[in-house]
Structure formats: structure tokens, C-alpha cells
Amino acid sequence: MSLITSLTRMWLTRNLHPFTFKNEYDRFLPFSECENLGLYVHIPFCKNICNFCPYCKVLYSQKMCEEYIDCLIKEIHFVGNRYSGKKTVTSLYFGGGTPALAAGRIKEIIDAINEHFIITEGIGLELHPDNVDEKTLKILKNAGVTKISIGIQSFQDKYQKILGRKKVDEKKLKSELKKVPFETVSMDLIFALPGQTLEDLKADADKAFEAGANHIAIYPFIDFTFTKSPVKPMPKKQKRLLLDRITDYFLSKGFERSSIWTFSNTKDAKYSSMTRDNFLGFGCSATTLLKDQFKINTFDPVSYCKRINSDEPATSLTIRFTKRQRMIYWLFWTAYSTKVNPVDFERFFGVPLKKMYGFEIWLCKKAGFIMEENGCYKMTLKGAFYYHYYENFYTLSYIDKMWGIMRKEAFPDQIKL
């Protein structure tokens, strides 16, 4: 796997050197000139730790959570105060962990952000099914949250058992969501679980929309090496067939496809914290992507708080991009939306996409991965599967290694990928 990603990286970046993340940081982040800038806030606390989840999380403690939120607000002001006036941003997303465990303080966090930023496309927040109750939903809506994403994974007991979770109460979920409407109600489902069939996935998707979702995300199960999940991933051919068929099913129903994994039954329902040109991340493990750098905060909440309370950024590692490296990062995550607009690429980098990657575009067309439509490049079903297939390599070669190290070391000296 590492050979595939390494060769691809060397070819596309025209550089033999690996991606090198160093233990360094900029005290002041140069985000003022960034367009299409998004915000992300990470709250790592969970009541129970799911063994398949790779994200930065710790068991919930009210005392620790309160201290962490205090530091989170300090970090927002620390970064925001470096910009004169208010910076316009696209969106704000809360992830975790289980952000709703801090529902009573979400408004404080949003108020702090509103002192420095103007949010134009809404605020999203992730929820565990246990948090979907009228009281919590009202608190979040009154705080300014406009979109919610609920981590269902599956409505079927057999798959919940495989994932080490309890069965979702569909009737309660539907009842509570009716009481407090949101612009987008997204539900996460997992595909490529052992023995999972098209009928299983269709049943889960239909139940999600019946329960009140207008948007769903069907994420593939990825076997991270540092998780304790006993689940084995589905074989490639079976996975491709399942992804193609569930995609055909949604498109046949007239649903909108907004990314590789996401579908909605209304045009305006969107939920994605990934497809943004630039973003600022706040909280432990949060990442920041700017014009020529990418940084990631420490994964350790205690170390995070110590840094912030010392009036220093909680950055653990930073990479300074070459222009080609930045282009590849932009293309990879923009393609997550299933399309790439050459006009956007040229606006961001000041050079035509075909000039930089004309051969690769021709090759992808010949292979049947993309087609050109109204000046944009759009993925075919085949292309979408192989994007997923490569992302799996990318995740296990890069993200798995980096997160595995950072879970053990708050501030590693250096990581080469």
C-alpha cells in the first residue's frame, strides 16, 4: 500500500521527497487573505469509546470538559485577534467525539467565533443518537446550529453488535426530530461491513429518510491499525459492486449526489466539512489548511490545555507545502465532491489545470474515471469507486501512520509520510 501511495505522490508532486511534518508552528496564522475559508471545532469527549472509531476522543468527564471548553474559547480569541475586523468564512462544523455532550456551552463557543468571523453558510454539529432529544436539539438550535449529523452507522441490530453499539430507537429518533427542525438533518451510515448486502444498505437508507433525514453519508468501513475493532473489511470486488448499486439506487430515486459518499432528497441539504479550499481548526487534533501550509494540533487534551493556557498555539506538527504538493491536496479533496472545476483551480493557483496535469486528465478520461461536462470534470461510477479505493490506500498509508503516532506522542519531533 505504501508503495502505491509513494509512487503516486512522487509522480504527481514531481518530487522524490516525502511529505515531511515538523515540530514547528507559526504563532500568527496567515489566514486573512484566504478565500473560501471554513472553520472546524473539535470536542473529543464521548460517554463510550467505539472500538472502530479512529478520531481523537477521550471518556467524558464534566470537569475536564469544562476546562477544555475554556481553553477552546481562548484559542479562538488567540487566533481571531490577529485579524483586524471580522473575517468572512463559509461554514463552521463541530466534530468529535460527541460535541452535544457540551451542548450547554456551544453558544459560548459560537459567540466567541462570531466576535471574529462572519459565517455565511451555516453551522453544523455531530450528534450521537442518544443526544437526539427535544431539550438538546432546542439548546443547539438556539445557539445557532443550522445543520446536524447523527452517527447512526446502521439501524440493524446485527451490524450495531458488530460495531459494539446499541440498537437505535427509530420511533424516538423520528419523534424528537419532528419537534425541532433543522436546515439539514444528515445521518451517517457505514457500508462494507461483513455480510452486508444491497438490501441491508437500502433498508438503512430508507429508514434514515423515514426517520427525518434529508441527507445521508454512507462511509466505507476502514480498518485502522491502531483501533481495536475486530471487524474485517469487505473484499474489493464485493465493495465496488455494493457502492455502484447503492449509488444507482439513490440516483434512480432522483436524489442529489453532493460527494462520493453523500446523497440528499432535497437540493439544498448539504453537510460536509471536507470540501473547502482553506480552513482553520480549533481544539485538540484539529487541522488547519492555508495557502501554503497544513498544521495539526496535539491529540492530547491535557497537553492542548497546557499550551493554550501558556498563550502558545497547540500545534503539534506543520508541513510547508511546495506548490505541487498543495495542488495535489486541493485536487484530492475537491474531487471528493465528485467534480473538479478548472476555473476554481486556476483562480486558486494562478495557472491552468491542464498545463499542470493535462496528461493525468487525459489518462483518467481514457481509463473511464472521469468525463468532461460543461467545462467541468465529473467522476463516473468507476472513477468514484477508484477514488474510494485510492483514498483507502491514502488513509492507511498516511493518516493511519500519523494519527497512530500522535495518539501516543503529544508533540512528535517529525513525521515523514
Written overview of the protein:
This protein is of the alpha/beta class and 417 residues long. It has 13 helices and 21 strands. It has helices at 2-13, 62-80, 103-114, 134-143, 157-163, 170-179, 198-211, 236-252, 301-309, 323-334, 342-349, 353-366, 381-406, and strands spanning 20-22, 37-43, 45-46, 58-59, 87-89, 92-96, 117-119, 123-127, 147-153, 184-191, 215-220, 256-257, 262-264, 278-282, 287-289, 293-297, 315-320, 339-340, 370-373, 376-379, 414-416. Strand 8 (123-127), helix 4 and strand 9 form a beta-alpha-beta unit. Helix 2 packs parallel to helix 3 (103-114), helix 2 packs across helix 9 (301-309) and helix 8 crosses helix 13. The chain is globular and about 55 Å long. 39% of the residues are buried. The mean pLDDT is 93.
Task: From the structure above, extract its key features.
single chain, 417 residues, alpha/beta, 21% strand, globular
- Main beta sheet, described? 9 strands, mixed
Which class of secondary structure composition applies to the elements? alpha/beta
Number of strands: 21
| Residue windows where pLDDT falls under 50 for at least 5 positions | none
Shape: globular
Fraction of helical residues: 40-55%
Estimated share of beta-strand residues: 15-25%
Average pLDDT for all residues: 93
Strand order of the largest sheet: 12-13-11-10-9-8-6-2-14
**Individual helix count:** 13
Give the distance, in angstroms, between the N- and C-terminal Cα atoms: 12 Å
The radius of gyration over CA amounts to 21 Å
Task: Give a quick summary of the entry.
The chain has helices spanning 2-13, 62-80, 103-114, 134-143, 157-163, 170-179, 198-211, 236-252, 301-309, 323-334, 342-349, 353-366, 381-406; strands spanning 20-22, 37-43, 45-46, 58-59, 87-89, 92-96, 117-119, 123-127, 147-153, 184-191, 215-220, 256-257, 262-264, 278-282, 287-289, 293-297, 315-320, 339-340, 370-373, 376-379, 414-416. The protein has 13 helices and 21 strands.
